Amino acid sequence: MKRILLACSAGMSTSMVVSKMKKAAEALEDEYYIYAIPEGAIEEELLAHHEEVVVIMLGPQVRFAKRATEKRAKPYGIPVDVMDVRLYGTADGEKLLEKALQLASQRQ
Question: Are the beta carbons of 18 and 34 closer than 8 angstroms?
């Protein structure tokens, strides 16, 4: 199963975004496992599931971790980006999913 990994400070503030993205993903034929974890757990998650993770999206509050996350994800060819603060703040699951899938299509 393809995984869309969202990361934030503690993995809790992103739960609303996750549920909205899951709702938007229901209409797609591909199944995605969309979930949130704390930014500090990304490396461990990649070790366990790097072959399934298609994109990593960081919450705006952890944008400082983008460069380090890109370094961790690069060996696996996984794209990383920071979620748009407006889309994150309004929990616009449809647009965030669209962005995630666009990035996932760039996975090497």
Answer: yes
Give the other-Cβ count within 10 Å of 56's Cβ: 28
Q: Which residues are catalytic?
A: 8
User: pLDDT, tens digit, for every residue of 1-17?
Assistant: 899 999 998 767 788 99
Task: Kindly list the distances between the CA atom of residue 28 and the CA atoms of 10, 14, 16, 22, in Å, as whole numbers in the listed order.
Answer: 28, 21, 20, 10
- Is this model's pTM higher than 0.85 or not? yes
User: Nearest 5°: phi and psi at 9?
Assistant: -60, -55
What Cα–Cα distance (Å) separates residue 82 from each residue in 1, 26, 31?
A: 23, 23, 23
DSSP lists the bridge partners of residue 82 as: 58
8 vs 79: CA distance, rounded Å: 16
Q: How far apart are CA 95 and CA 38, in angstroms?
A: 22
14 token code pair = 């992103």
Q: How many other CB atoms are found less than 10 A from the CB of residue 81? A: 18
